[in-house]
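Encode chain A's predicted structure.
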Amino acid sequence: MKRFEILDHTADIGIIVHGGNLKALFENAGEAFFHLITDLRKVKRRVERRVNIEGESLDRLMVDWLSELLYLHDVENLLFKGFQVDSVGEDGLKAAVKGEPFQEGVHVIKTEVKAVTYHQIEVRRESGGWRAQVI
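Encoded structure for chain A:
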């Protein structure tokens, strides 16, 4: 099963993510998100940040998860490569993410992501696991 694919969308970009379970779905979404932003082969796992999000619907949780990663990228100038979701569900999400600060000459920004939207957001169970679409 493909972990993720890029979705062309008018004036925007999106991802379709797959996971055998919810933890894998959210981990793969984090990886897909940073795959849009940079070349992950050049990112090392040097720093760790904890992400804790209160419980809400899975659609909202997905948007908040990626928005929190975008916030850490924008404010702390971090690029993430490692995503470990400890728990995810109606109670919320708890995860550890690993990466390093952006370094000119080492990292390239492929896509500047401005926001994660609710437009056409979808997180659903399907045969063989879970699927999410995020624009």
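The longest strand covers residues 78-89.
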